[in-house]
Design goal:
The protein is an alpha/beta fold. It has helices spanning 20-31, 37-60, 73-83, 98-106, 124-134, 154-163, 212-217, 253-269, 271-289, 317-323, 345-359; strands at 8-9, 67-70, 89-93, 110-114, 138-142, 167-171, 190-194, 206-210, 230-233, 236-239, 308-312, 326-327, 329-331, 334-338.
Length: 361
Amino acid sequence: MSEKKSLVYLNTAACGLIPEPIMQAGLSWYSSFTINGSTSSERWRNELQTSIKADAAALLNTAPKNVALIPNFSFTLNAVVQSLKGDEKVLLYRKDYPSLYIPFVINNFDITWIDDEDGFFIDPEKISAVIKEKKINIVAISHVQYQSGFRADLAQLGNICRDNNALLIVDATQSLGAIETDMSALPVDVLIASNYKWMNAGYGNGLLYMNETFLQTYPPKISGNNSQTFRFTDDGYVNEVSINNYEPGSLDMFGFMIMQASLAEKNKTGIRQIAQHNFGLAQKLLSGLASLPVRVIGGQTLENRCSIISVEETGGLHAWLSQNNIITTLRNGLVRISAHYYNTDEDIDAILHCISDWSKR
């Protein structure tokens, strides 16, 4: 490809693009802080925070009482881990995103590691067998794997955990905003996501879902004034346990105004429609790759997939794509391609043509 092409962004799995109107929601809100910051911040805490949580609950199809606004996945999982007793036996996937397993490792939990079968498939039957054999108390796993794009069946996995009296904690950072996540139907105890990828809401904001049973069994070990759960009485203090404990201090209002605009767009368009669009692009990509000399991780079907497709890096493929203005990620020997709702058939054609040209060098 001797002629430079316009940029093709196929890297939402690294960072989602923020549409201009969504970015303006944050900028417009912060403009009020140049004149009357205290009134604006009080209005945000007293009114807008509640409405943002309602919008987030609508996306997750749950009640606002089950949702907290959080700064990111890592902070929140660490806070959740602190609520545990510490003697739980935890099942983790060895190649999962480090932020998912580090809190358990650093706090010296009894960990059992599982591996995939072929660089892609994580067998739920193996998970079931290990839970039984090791008497696992907690399974913590990503909904979608950041390297391979493997998508776990949360309904199946949750039922396996329920049948064996195990808890299920899910990292949804690589799925929220692109795959339907109906918390009224999924047997998931805790779900956490940062919103800078498929939610297209930038950094500094995320969502926590927690069911009432988990909340009451493992009350939070963090809180703050703005959590509105802690108050003094004549007899000492009362900590009124709620998911609001996970909202201590001052939240990033700029980030959450962007998130609110993103939520409005996602709720209006519908995650099902976004997923169908993305799956269509993924199928087109898989079909095209089948005739090219690259090895696709996970095979050629959409089974257990999202719209993240990884191929084995060889012969400078990633560098070639970058030189031709096609943005992907190189991760541990894999070129990761990830299309979202703003991508088109033409974008998929562009990367297929580029890979074809690379193969003929």
